[in-house]
Write a structure and sequence with these properties.
Helices cover 18% and strands 40% of the residues. It is an alpha+beta fold.
Length: 150
């Protein structure tokens, strides 16, 4: 599968890029969603209310991420650390993302740990950990805007 309109995912481009750097040489695919097996299992171990704890399948993951830009827009990603256990085909990516919340204009910075299992040069399982307090801080309308902090 190749997602036909990557413009739908423009808000996530820095995230896609940091993941691609972390998995360089380990997976095949020309764009982010090509890196995943069709029947991938994605688990958001630490998440925020309203976000699913589990997504089954590459198409479902694409649909979940399609609406991301209505909530957050990322400007950058970095702080990448890669830990690869060749014996178990597990890769742990540590990284950060930076951007802003659309509704509030507040800055958004979060750190992630993604535990990724590979098989046949595709991602077959992804477990994601993030800081939910960073999401709440960016989305909280009572905190003012990035230009006018409360």
């Amino acid at each position: 599968m190749t997602v036909a309109n990557l413009q739908d995912f423009a808000a996530l481009r820095p995230f896609f890029d940091v993941v691609a750097r972390g998995l360089d040489g380990l997976v095949d695919g020309s764009q982010f969603f090509d890196l995943f097996a069709e029947d991938v299992v994605v688990e958001f171990v630490i998440t925020v209310p309203g976000y699913p704890p589990r997504v089954l399948g590459r198409d479902a993951l694409a649909e979940l991420y399609r609406g991301y830009g209505a909530t957050m827009v990322l400007d950058g990603a970095g702080d990448l650390a890669v830990h690869h256990d060749r014996a178990t085909s597990v890769v742990v990516l540590e990284y950060s993302v930076h951007g802003r919340a659309v509704a509030t204009g507040r800055p958004y910075t979060n750190r992630f740990v993604s535990v990724i299992t590979l098989s046949d040069r595709r991602i077959v399982r992804w477990r994601d950990y993030l800081d939910p307090l960073a999401v709440f801080a960016a989305l909280d309308p009572d905190r003012g805007t990035a230009a006018d902090p409360a």
